[in-house]
Amino acid sequence: MNWNRQQPSPMPHHRYRSVFDRVPVVPIERDWPNRRTTTAPLWVPVDLRDGNQALAEPMDPARKRRFFDLLVAIGYKEVEVGYPSASQTDFDFVRRLTDVPDDVTVVVFTPARRALIERTLESVRDIRTPVVVHLYAATAPLWRDIVLRRTREELTDLILRAADDILELSQDRDNVRFQFSPEVFNLTEPDFVLDLCNRLTTRWDATPDRPVVLNLPATVEVATPNVYADQIEHMHKSLDRRESVILSVHPHNDRGTGIACAELAVLAGAQRVEGCVFGNGERTGNVDLATLALNLYTQGVDPMIDFSDLDHIRATVEYCTRLPVPARHPYVGDLVHTAFSGTHQDAIRKGLAEHTRRAAEAGVPERDHPWDVPYLPIDPADLGRTYDAVIRVNSQSGKGGIGYLLHAEYGVKLTPDEEADFARHVQRHTDRTGRETTAAELHALYQQVYAS
Ligand SMILES: CC(=O)SCCNC(=O)CCNC(=O)[C@H](O)C(C)(C)COP(=O)(O)OP(=O)(O)OC[C@H]1O[C@@H](n2cnc3c(N)ncnc32)[C@H](O)[C@@H]1OP(=O)(O)O
Ligand SMILES: CC(C)C(=O)C(=O)O
After folding, report:
1. Which candidate in 147, 276, 326, 413 could, as Cys together with 47 as Cys, close a disulfide (CB 3.0–4.6 Å)?
2. Is the ipTM of this complex over 0.90?
3. What is the pLDDT of residues 303-329, one digit of tens each?
4. 111 CA distance to ligand 1 middle (Å)
5. What spacing in Å lies between the alpha carbon of 165 and ligand 2's midpoint?
């Protein structure tokens, strides 16, 4: 019997090439599949630069400042604050950042052009706290050939001259460190990008006390995450002065696997991750730092960032970016802690009751007891949320969810037989209306049905 009846699609897939035909992927003895992540990497939000450049209306200074203050308040210790040579707004915002806490590093982003480097360094002239000057240039062949129109040698020359300019213009500034990003690292020949990175750490004289950040972006995501992990592990194992380099990654999300790329890259040796708090950024966005942090949290690892008031963080980010967070967004979306379906509701209800029972038995507050509730990978209360939205009723629901809601909202406790009977009435009602039934409507229906 032929169970596979799929037909070739009419779409011209022959126009596209596998990543393995676009860039040499060095075969490596990979260690990353056997590793575990037990500590948080250094997080660097780039919302004020990469996120900002993706907005139809870039943030005004007030919005930028509000975003910056939020990032610092929740625990980020390094923040990319802008592209100061891009606009007067960006420049002025950075110029005014003279009250940054001592333990927070600001990163400023610049292309490899002397005049723009001068402007960038001018923007941080009065900042006494740590500063990273972040130089970027595209290194992948497609960009070299058609955008920059330079050979490998010419591009190396351009980048090293820019590195020298940065060195010269910051020579009396002890608080300045350096970062380089070979843009579209993931489509760049490994020998070329390795050579370039090594030349930069030599030129900038990277030391353990004054490490250079080498940030290897998947500027446009083009491969499955294991390929990116291999590329990162190759660099991790091959770079000169490794102990004087902070190896950083900067995934985008074109294939929807930015999170996986970052997680595997950390296993592969990356120490630092750049992204945006809820994944804003060019096209499908930068990697989502909130999801990455909370993924760690749900493995029992301290993310080192405080997401315990997630709705406040979300409201601030939505205000600053003018972009709504979708209902299904991991951890923070309106519907991510909600079950409409009957068997899930039943499991959650039993799981919550069992959680309460076990905590009491152990003699610890419920908020301290290990969390193990079916279908809820995280306790909504840990994110500052209530259990109000955990169960909602429509035609997909069953007696368990209906009973839970009536009890939780109105203190009406039904016996199992009563629940089963009332659920039949609710089912008829939800089938007829086709809508969700609120707790209030449920209660009204209950009173109507059992009035006498
Ligand atoms: C992956 C990333 O996120 S990279 C960051 C992208 N972000 C931004 O572009 C936002 C801010 N940018 C800007 O405000 C402007 O692009 C500026 C001020 C930097 C430059 O503006 P303009 O001088 O008008 O140039 P334009 O925007 O057209 O950029 C194209 C030029 O930059 C060159 N260029 C591109 N990247 C780089 C780089 N990293 N270093 C040096 N030159 C570069 C291109 O080759 C091109 O030069 P050409 O005109 O000689 O062909
Ligand atoms: C140049 C860098 C860091 C970048 O924004 C990207 O490649 O997406």
Report:
1. 276
2. yes
3. 999 999 999 999 999 999 999 999 999
4. 7
5. 21
